Amino acid sequence: MSSVFQGLSAFPITPADRDGRVDAEALGRLVERLIAARVDSIGLLGSTGTYAYLSREERRRAVSIAAEAARGRTPLVVGIGALRTDEAIRLGRDAREAGADAVLLAPVSYTPLTEREVEAHFTAVADAVGLPLCVYDNPATTHFSFTPALIGRLSRHPSIVAVKAPSAEAAAMPERLAALRAVTSETFQIGFSGDWNAAEALIAGGAAWYSVLGGLFPDPCMSIVKAAQAGDVTAARDANAALEPLWALFRELSSLRVVYAAANLLGLCRADPPLPILPLGDKDAQRCQDIISRLGLR
Q: Is residue 258 part of a domain?
């Protein structure tokens, strides 16, 4: 199952109406698009999938919709983050029963968590859910940063088999990867998020790219992954550099708002991000359209 956590894990949005009801047809289209591109896994209900804004019922529906569309062709990694440990366990069991192949767990909190609390939370969920679990280290949203020592301890649990870690600037990537490898087993998969630094993470030896852009435009992202896996550093960097106009827009406006706008511009859905997140205004949406057109993305 460790292969689920290698290569390109593509994270689509979860199109829904203003009441948080998932649009089954639109989500199915997005999943089919990823399967056609032969991504290595689909990261459902990640941050880009706005898991924190959906009810338990709609999260389960989203997994069922995606599993039906995937029909076993591409593994589903499902986000199960929740404030309470018992709720994360229920979400994990829901995901398993609805067709997930693995789960992704972030330490969601209101009161800041200690390392001891996070370790206990992850161990309890891993014990109860019965699926391979990937640690989701996303301090920008959870305000909790995993130390290498904590990831090392969690990696000793037989069901905790991977980490989705934030990427660093190019010069720092080898050191970050080495620090994690020094405390985890050889089979533990170390992958990275942060799209604009992902090429360097792969070049440094990261096992996976957990990609926002890949959830909408998988083909150029697959090109980067394949080049890095083949050891063609120049091709990987060139393919990444070609996407810099989008990376700049991600950094300025947030990747979530940009991919929602792009999905609508492509006619893949008619959905806005969940309130209170606002969609891009007309001027920024036009900028998004111009960049998509200039890069020949579709």
A: no
Is residue 244 included in any domain, yes or no? no
Query: Which amino acid, residue 194?
Result: G
The residue segments making up the domain with residue 154 are 2-230
Q: Name the catalytic one among 136, 210, 226, 283.
A: 136
Question: What CATH number is attached to the domain comprising 33?
Answer: 3.20.20.70
| Residue 3 banded pLDDT, cuts 50, 70, 90 | confident
- Domain presence at residue 155: yes
Domain assignment present for residue 157? The answer is yes
Is 136 considered catalytic here?
yes
| Residue-wise DSSP of 46-104 | STTTTGGGS-HHHHHHHHHHHHHHHTTSS-EEEE---SSHHHHHHHHHHHHHHT-SEEE
Tell whether 74 is in a known binding site: no
The predicted model scores a pTM of 0.96
Q: Which one from 164, 210, 226, 260 is the annotated catalytic residue?
A: 164
pLDDT tens digits along 209-232: 999 999 999 999 999 999 999 999
Whether 283 is a known active-site residue: answer no
